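Much of what follows relies on a compact textual record of a protein's fold. The record below shows the convention in full:
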Amino acid sequence: MDALELSRWTRFATKGGIGKCTAIQDCVAESSEDLMFLKDDEIIVLMQIPENEGVYLGYCEGVVGKFHAQTVYFHSKLKRPVMTKRNSSAMSSRYRPFNIVELSSKRATICRF
């Protein structure tokens, strides 16, 4: 993940991502793409990894990485991502931030990057 992509994911995390979860066990990163966390750490969920069911991209303690759903407790249903085309060609197509539509009974909010 390059610096620009990391910056965008970090900014998305400060806006709450698509949801939150809490670690139910310690998880040691096995590769540079994995997220390391301790039991009871709060993780901001950024996206579900499309090619791996049960694997998510998350943010914890200033670090962005992948984690498995079975190692966390999700606080609520995750928000639904709305994919949008970006003009930036510098960004990897692997993990790309997206707009989120949060629907409630009173309003719809769109978060943009």
In short: Residues 3-111 form a domain with the SH3 type barrels. fold (CATH 2.30.30.40). Residues 99-113 have pLDDT under 50 and may be disordered. The two ends are 17 Å apart (CA to CA).
